[in-house]
Automatic annotation (TrEMBL):
It holds the Pfam family LRR_8. This is Uncharacterized protein. GO terms for biological process: defense response. The keyword DNA repair does not apply. GO terms for molecular function: ADP binding; ATP binding. InterPro entries: Apaf_helical, At4g27190-like_LRR, Leu-rich_rpt, LRR_dom_sf, NB-ARC, P-loop_NTPase, Plant_NBS-LRR, WHD_DRP.
């Protein structure tokens, strides 16, 4: 019946407008839909690129630009709309096609527009507004007089430019960071405090862009340095700013960059830090010399690191003081040398170290740059273990002042073969992290801007590069061309050209670097081709990183790299052609995450040393069977493609005795069941196994998944229909038509570690857990529950007729979300409430019949019965309550009840026209929750009609309310 009605409607709609365009649209229908699909793919690609780049670039000092954030939101929205159109296309009748064709055309225009907006030539991130952001910095030891002197000049009118000079490691940058942070507190003196790290070499264009970014400005791409300079001059002329240029090495003129000369009149100031006095003099700076620390200050700093207890042993104390003397008052040397002595309590060891340090310094002229190197090198040598030393040196492959992600660094050491082979990946990762800790504790590496990051002091990095002159490091220097062939000398061991703008490697370029082991070219995102013979004379190459380049094919010379152990091709989205890899017999790791290939590279099946294989490429069509048979060393195997056609047979994997991480699409339920029954999963430390279609909300391309199963369009429910691993932690159920309740999955009842469950698009499910037929113990550890598009769901937990329910149901639940469950009338019954004490967030959107959130007693109950007593409910940890588009919602909790939720921070009430009473109170009743900081109300009028327990609540909360207009 309904279909006929729609058909008639379609006819009316289609016939009413001029018929000709109807026919036209028909003809174009296919074209349009294809076009739409293609464009959508491009858009998805671009979105992923943007997201990946953001992951790499966002840190505590940089944030995504607003336009980027907005764009990503729009992409999501448009994507959903188009998916919807495509679904309808799938089941379209003849008549509706015409209209859909037109709709498709419209959507194409929308896509074009959004694609256009998706170019971010000026980059994706901006520095977080300087005005709000102090730079994290260690405490300042001594140097107070210098600091006050500089601050004095900055506050006064006489000295516009200050040059802070001193040898590397004396603490110039640290002093300036403290000054920077203090200037931020003195809001009235300057409009703007701008910090730019210049480093070596001076790149005027970069400098211009950095300064502009700090001023919230960007330059048009198509102009040149000079016009940028005049733009900058204008922008900067308008504000009273302090410009701090840290670590300047070369002379330059302000005018060339576009920096107005600071004068008494414009009130601007410039501070430059440099190891070179002549650079500061050239610019006309007042020189402030940073002198080394006094003996007392040095001793304090040293003791801060090694601990004061050491002085209790008098003999040791004496040696220590002599050692401090050898540090010549250089904070960096003190910190690093002290770092190498942490935990040493033996007098002989101390005396030996002292002698050694003196011995080294004797040969070097007092006060020369070499002395600091020698002091730092002393600490490096004390690492003793050559693996740890090599790991340290390898950090210098990153750009100066770069915040390195710890995780990547550890992985890189393994990839470079710097962590000894230990039989399992987990053991090697543990070893890598241990080395990292050691380097951090010894102060050879410094804390980064967040827990996940680490960095190398520029002077330490100089030292590392000096220890190993066989490195060529030109990372993030804005290179547009690859260094000339003559720079590729025969003795090079490692080359890093990462994060440049190199666009191609000329045809005839075949550098002769027979002992080169590591070559990093990642994120030269403009690199489209590599000359055919480029790798021909790099026989020793072990680790090659081409991630994030735009190459379309790998040159043939790669086939002969018989010593290559690591080949990284992540995010090589354009990559289509990979030659036969059969000769790369040493290969241990092949990473093609999100590469563009659609077939598995030839020859993989005989790379018997492979330990790590990531084939989660975007377009992979099919995975040949039997490919895994000889790869018995595999520890990490991840295979996926967007088309979900590259499946693996569970039984092929059972032979892989060393596997630790496994992600794949299996053939079918039977295949999954057999695999699980084989108990192979028990050796895995993480897995993610999917059968059938995967839910759109899940991102299979992430690396830290736990133990998850995804079931799409499967027949589950009933005796043994699906066998789940007993340690499963995440369960995703997607469009399983006959699925009725988690309680129907027998194997699930035996699990105890389920932490997350998402159920989407299952037509028949009536309740999530059915206490009538099963116990609820398997959900006791559940931390997150998402329910989406379940048209028949009427209760979350069915307790009908059950005598006593367990107070532990959902006792670990933190996040609950429900969308488009149109039969739900009440969310949680009173019985469930006692278990929900850990709940932190509730989201309920688009549920047409939802009447009540907490305390639902079924429809028969008379809600006004006990209207005279006030019942109190508590959700002590609730931080977020989001209610959107619930046309029937009348109550948050029963009529006279109040809900105590003192932790509530965020409240959203949008399009809930029948809701009047907001029974939410904090611990101090009847005041609203004290933490409530963000309230979103739509439409605006609703705010007026809401009634709070506290008559004064609206006044109190007014500043936190906003009214979205989307
Ligand atoms: C830059 O923009 C941010 C937020 O958009 C603002 O807080 C900051 O004050 C702006 N800074 C300058 C220098 O205009
Ligand atoms: C290779 O490059 C990728 C992308 O930047 C990075 O995540 C990874 O750590 C690099 N690995 C090595 C060994 O250089
Ligand atoms: C590469 O490996 C071969 C044999 O596998 C070995 O003879 C050769 O010395 C290695 N080359 C380098 C430069 O390490
Ligand atoms: C795999 O191993 C088997 C037995 O060891 C061998 O016969 C077969 O040739 C190997 N396959 C490949 C592709 O190397």
């Amino acid at each position: 019946m309904a279909e006929i009605a729609t058909l008639i409607l379609e006819i009316i709609k289609c016939v009413a407008p001029p018929t000709r365009s109807c026919v036209d649209n028909h003809r174009k229908f296919k074209e349009n839909v294809e076009d739409l699909k293609n464009k959508l793919r491009i858009l998805e690609g671009r979105k992923e690129d943007v997201e990946t780049r953001l992951q790499d670039e966002v840190c505590s000092e940089k944030q995504a630009k607003n336009e980027v954030v907005l764009w990503l939101q729009d992409v999501k929205k448009v994507n959903a709309e188009i998916q919807d159109v495509l679904k309808r296309v799938h089941s379209a009748s003849y008549f509706s096609r015409a209209r859909l064709g037109k709709l498709a055309r419209e959507k194409i225009d929308v896509l074009d527009a959004i694609l256009q907006r998706g170019n971010f030539p000026e980059g994706l991130v901006v520095n977080k507004p300087a005005t709000t952001l102090p730079i994290p910095v260690e405490d300042l030891e001594g140097e107070d007089t210098v600091k006050e002197e500089i601050l004095g000049y900055l506050k006064g009118n006489e000295v516009p430019m200050i040059g802070v000079c001193g040898i590397g490691g004396v603490g110039k940058t640290t002093i300036m960071k403290h000054i920077h942070n203090e200037l931020l507190l003195m809001e009235s003196r300057f409009d703007n405090v701008i910090w730019v790290t210049v480093s070596y070499p001076l790149n005027v264009v970069r400098l211009q862009h950095e300064i502009a970014k700090r001023m919230n400005e960007s330059f048009p791409e198509n102009e040149d340095e000079q016009s940028w300079a005049s733009r900058l001059m204008q922008i900067m002329g308008k504000v009273k700013s302090v410009l701090i240029l840290d670590d300047v090495w070369h002379r330059f003129t302000l005018k060339d960059v576009g920096i107005p000369s600071p004068t008494k009149e414009n009130g601007c100031k410039i501070v430059i830090t440099s190891r070179k006095v002549d650079v500061c003099q050239f610019l006309g700076c007042e020189i402030v010399k940073v002198s080394p620390l006094s003996e007392e200050e040095s001793l304090n700093l040293f003791l801060d690191r090694v601990g004061r207890d050491i002085l209790q042993n008098q003999e040791l104390g004496e040696i220590l003081k002599l050692m401090v003397k050898e540090c010549a008052g250089l904070p960096l040397a003190i910190v690093v040398i002290a770092g190498s002595m942490i935990g040493v309590t033996n007098v002989h060891q101390w005396r030996h170290a002292l002698n050694e340090l003196r011995e080294r310094l004797r040969a070097i002229a007092e006060g020369s740059e070499d002395q600091i190197f020698e002091r730092l090198k002393f600490s490096y040598d004390r690492l003793q273990d050559s693996n740890t030393q090599n790991c340290f040196l390898s950090c210098s492959l990153y750009a100066a002042d770069y915040q390195i992600r710890k995780e990547n660094l550890v992985e890189q050491w393994i990839d470079e073969g710097l962590v000894e082979e230990l039989g399992s990946r987990r053991a090697m990762l543990d070893k890598g992290w241990t080395i990292l800790n050691k380097l951090e504790n010894s102060c050879l590496l410094e804390k980064g801007h967040s827990e996940a990051l680490i960095k190398m002091h520029d002077v330490v990095r100089d030292m590392a590069l000096r220890i190993n002159p066989q490195f060529m490091v030109k990372a993030r220097m804005g290179l547009t061309e690859i260094p000339d062939e003559h720079e590729w000398t025969e003795n090079l061991e490692k080359v890093s050209l990462m994060q440049n703008e190199i666009s191609d490697i000329p045809l005839n370029m075949c550098p002769n670097c027979p002992i080169l082991t590591t070559l990093m070219l990642q994120w030269n995102s403009k690199l489209t081709q590599i000359s055919d013979c480029f790798f021909a004379n790099m026989q020793g190459l072990k680790c090659l990183n081409l991630s994030g380049t735009s190459i379309e094919s790998l040159p043939h010379s790669i086939c002969n790299l018989e010593n290559l152990t690591t080949l990284l091709l992540r995010h090589c989205r354009q990559l289509k052609h990979v030659p036969c890899l059969a000769k790369l017999q040493a290969l241990k790791k092949l990473d093609m995450l999100k590469a563009g290939i659609d077939v598995v590279p030839e020859g993989i099946d005989i790379l018997v040393n492979l330990q790590y294989l990531d084939l989660r490429s975007l377009q992979l069509v099919e995975l040949p069977t039997q490919i895994l048979g000889n790869l018995s060393h595999l520890q990490h195997l991840t295979v996926y493609s967007k088309s979900t056609t590259s499946k693996i047979k569970g039984e092929e994997v059972r032979g892989l005795k060393k596997l630790e991480t496994f992600q794949a699409q299996l053939y079918d339920l039977q295949d999954l069941n057999n695999y699980v029954k084989s108990n192979h999963f028990k050796r895995l430390s993480n897995y993610w196994l999917a059968v059938g279609q995967v839910e759109e909300g899940f991102d299979p391309f992430i690396n830290n998944f736990s133990k998850g199963i995804s079931l799409g369009e499967c027949e589950i429910g009933g005796e043994d229909s699906v066998v789940l691993p007993d340690d499963v932690q995440e369960l995703w159920i997607y469009r399983c038509r006959k699925f009725r309740s988690l309680s129907d999955i027998y194997s699930l009842q035996k699990t105890t570690e389920l932490k997350f469950c998402s159920i989407t698009g299952c037509e028949e499910i009536g309740c999530v857990v059915d206490m009538v037929t099963s116990s609820s113990s398997f959900i006791n550890n559940l931390g997150g529950l998402w329910l989406y598009k379940l048209p028949n769901l009427s209760v979350v937990v069915n307790v009908e007729g059950v005598e006593a329910t367990s107070p532990h149901i959902f006792s670990n639940l933190k996040f609950f979300g429900m969308w488009e469950c149109s039969r739900m009338k009440g969310l949680f019954s009173l019985e469930l409430l006692q278990g929900l004490q850990n709940l932190e967030a509730i989201t309920v959107w688009n549920c047409q019949q939802m009447e009540e959130i907490i305390g639902w007693e079924g429809e028969e109950e008379n809600h006004t019965a006990d209207a005279t007593t006030t019942t109190t409910f508590t959700l002590p940890k609730l931080r977020q309550l989001n209610l959107q588009n619930l046309p029937e919602l009348k109550r948050i909790c029963p009529t006279r009840g109040v809900m105590v939720c003192d932790s509530l921070q965020q409240l959203q009430i949008e399009e809930c026209p029948k809701l009047r009473r907001i029974p939410l109170v904090g611990n101090v009743r009847p005041s609203p929750p004290a933490a409530l900081k963000r309230i979103s109300i739509k439409p605006k009028e609703l705010w007026e009609s809401l009634e709070w327990e506290d008559p004064n609540a609206k006044n109190v909360l007014q500043p936190s309310v906003h009214f979205p207009t989307y």
